[in-house]
Amino acid sequence: MAEQTLGLAGTTAWPAEFAERYRKAGYWVGQTFGEALREWAQRSGEATAVVCGERRWSYRELDQRVDRLAAGLQQLGIQPKQRVVVQLPNCAEWFVVCFALFRVGAIPLMALPAHRLAEIGYFCQHSEAVAYVIADKVGSFDYRNLAAEVKAVAPTLEHVLVVGESGQFTALADVDAAPSQFPVLDPAEVALFQLSGGSTGVPKLIARTHDDYLYSVRASAEICELDASSVYLCVLPMAHNFPMSSPGTLGTLAAGGTVVLAPQPSPDVAFPLIAREGVTITGMVPPLALLWLDAAAKRKAELASLKQILVGGAPFGADTARRVQPELGCQLQQVYGMAEGLVNYTRLNDPAELICHTQGRPISPLDEVRIVDDEDNDVPLGELGHLITRGPYTIRGYYQAAEHNQRAFTSDGFYRTGDLARLNAAGYVSVEGRAKDQINRGGEKVAAEEIEQHLLNHPAIHDVALVGLPDRFLGERTCAVIVSNGVNINRREVVQFLRSRGLAEYKLPDLVEIVASLPKTGVGKINKRLLREQLSAGSVPA
Ligand code: AMP
Ligand code: DBH
What we know:
Elements: H1 16-24, H2 33-44, E1 48-52, E2 55-58, H3 59-76, E3 83-87, H4 93-104, E4 107-110, H5 117-127, E5 131-135, E6 137-138, E7 141-142, H6 143-153, E8 159-163, E9 170-171, E10 190-195, E11 205-209, H7 210-223, E12 231-234, H8 241-245, H9 248-254, E13 258-261, H10 267-277, E14 281-284, H11 286-299, E15 308-312, H12 318-328, E16 331-338, E17 341-345, H13 352-357, E18 361-362, E19 368-372, E20 385-390, H14 402-408, E21 415-423, E22 429-434, E23 438-441, E24 444-447, H15 448-455, E25 461-471, E26 475-484, H16 491-500, E27 511-515, H17 528-537
Parallel strand pairs: 1-13, 3-4, 3-5, 5-8, 8-9, 12-13, 12-14, 14-15, 15-16, 26-27
Antiparallel strand pairs: 1-2, 6-7, 10-11, 16-17, 17-18, 19-20, 20-21, 21-22, 23-24, 25-26
Helix pairs in contact: 2-3, 2-4, 3-4, 5-6, 7-9, 11-12
Bound molecules: adenosine monophosphate and 2,3-dihydroxy-benzoic acid (DBH).
Adenosine monophosphate binds near residues 314 and 337.
């Protein structure tokens, strides 16, 4: 079958017969995000779209701000299909920036506030970004210093736009013009870049189209039963696929509800916001759910308006899952999703058994989920195997990654999630493990190879393996197991070294072990399974 590509070079489209099937089913409706916001503004006008601190914007106001910024971006010279790296903390401006980019046809890349030079530099280079949007400062971290470093390594970067004090760069507030003519865009084209947690040396970029992403957003809102009375509290970093689309802030806007942005996810910040705004729904990773459960013991009254809470991104134990309804006083929806596409939810009226013991079933009747053995043969129903998937909102290939795509996708277009799971007769998925070389640190994914490659550049390090070890709170924490060159090295030095290479804080190893040698497999690869066993048993040769 000839490979289809989207208009943007380096992207893989769905084969024509699949695209037709998804359109016929009414899933791809041929609308862009820019048009969707216009429709939402016409429908919900004066209703509150976004609450950020003391600011409250109606749908109409949001739409108007987007128009002005979009016109300003056009005056700056931003063109359709150009890439723009967006790295903002949870703030209302994030919506204005992203939708303005959608409206002019430029493509936002959803960076996280935790990313540093190693990640942002790579995103700008690999996507050939022309602009980078930041906040001035968050806490003690000054993103303008980071931007100066990024500019030095990213030759395509022409603009740095700053929310707040612009310093040497351009203030976002000054990018403003009277709304003008916006280009007519193809909804089948790329709308945005999401990021993969990955398992290889460099993070992968995920190109999502207007058609496919909007479908996942609208269908998620429906499954989570959102409507105009829904109030969604965004506690996770808002650029992440989960709080953005499952059903997240975009699902809430699609349903005419209100998005409340939390600057931090801790109970001390989030609980008063829930009480003040009458929050009905939120989404979080398992470690945060544990924190909330503990805090709720004394503060349940503040959560009175909460109807449901989505928990996903990492394994959520059934015992903890059972505590949600009685202790938080709201329904749990487990969600197993990925920025590459496929998202599963337990449904609100599912029996407790399914809600506590499974990660739900796919969004779409046209999602194809298979559980296969090492040779890609389907395993009998109920058996454990590799979960592979394709469907109306699951990508067919990473951006500009032809070689990696050969391994990450089957020849007939199924994405290899790297997750070990089983299916029940009703199509519910239970995720029970992982075959990919990635550590899931409470929902934050760390690609072992990425960290190992950085560490191999340290003169004192001869060989290294990054492995995950069980952690009561995070689920897993990272341990760098190092064979040294005979020179002493400790965790402080390892962490300092990785920081100096511009790595995000969550990727820094929690533990460092120095060993005499690493166990190898027959073909000479590091045997991580054995290594993990040795570490837990305390029997690694020191
Ligand atoms: P990413 O591909 O970086 O978006 O991360 C998606 C991955 O997160 C999945 O492939 C799983 O490994 C993991 N994940 C997401 N949700 C869950 C969940 N509810 N339970 C277990 N693992 C999950
Ligand atoms: O972990 C994830 O990436 C994730 C989890 C839940 C996700 O992308 C999603 C829901 O959409």
